[in-house]
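One chain is below:
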Amino acid sequence: MMPRAGFALMKNPTDLRQRAAQIIREYDHQGIHRTGTRVDERSARWLARLAQGCGVAPSLEPFTLNRVDPRSCYLQIGKRRIEGLPIFDGGFTEAEGVRGRLGPFDSDAEIGLIEAPPNAEYTPAYAKMRREARHRAIVIVTRGARAGLSPINAPHFTESYGPPALQVSSQEGEWLKEQSEKRAEVILVTHVSRVKARAFNVTARIKGADPELAPLVVMTPRSGWWHSASERGGGLVCWLEVMRALTAAKPARHCLFVASSGHELGHMGLDHFIEHHHGMVKDARVWIHLGANIGARNQPGHRLQTSSDDLDKLAIEAMKAEGARVDEVRPRDAAPLGEAGNIHRGGGRYISVVGRNGLFHHSDDRWPDAVDADAVSAFAGAFVRIALAMAQG
């Protein structure tokens, strides 16, 4: 049953918008949110304090990783040096790098050149390309909607594969293509350090009146390649607003919350959470996934991803009631994007929203230019409605 219109927590949209703006501004100003870094830890503690302010007792649940710290990562062609970022689930080089001719991918050159979008990990051709590469190393020109370096996630971070691969800005693409046609001699370096590190999921639990009822789980990722203001900020706002609403509502069922690190590294944090909450994927009444780019500015729309028709109906009604624009309902036979994919593969029920973003994985994804706080607020209101409906008996 959908909560009645005008319920108490949503009476003042101005307050909600102000909270959204403050949260995303603070998140952006923290710095680069890569998993297992000092910024990532400070951000976890900040989010836990905000959760405490919503009336819950949050926990920081640690997990370990061998963090990749780039040391010297570049492509040298004659006197020109192009800085880049390695693929984090690929091979790496020593400090002297790999020497050879640059040529088109699948040519006889020692170092292959190819283009790929920042969400390439979702395309089977990308993994096939890297696994079957005949080259000693690969240069990947990243092609996002805005010119620049837009890194690709590392879904196989714990089981790296393929030759060393260096990601470079799309601004270098045409010149590199010319060099590849000439089979220019190059040096490619992806020299990194591996550092044992800890990252943290921020978790919380709101106790329900009936422990026999299946729990509700609300999840959002909180890490990323750069400041990630619009990629991650909207999801964090929605996560906290749902927490605030459910705390006041005294729900019938237990409600669990997880804001996971490790998103860009194969969803490591969510995997850790699932492993330590055995059976939760199938046992939960529903997983609410607050995905990427919720409320990103000037985007064409948002995708709704659910596991059933009844959840589609519930979500669409809530979005319509709050003016949250969804322009695509992902087909049921298509695997959902983001962390909802983990729940899909495990046979669980889920409601998920992910947006599109012209600054996806780009260093210009910053507050305030990349964020539409009004759109974020609308989605926060919609997810509050969904959560209140799902949290009852």
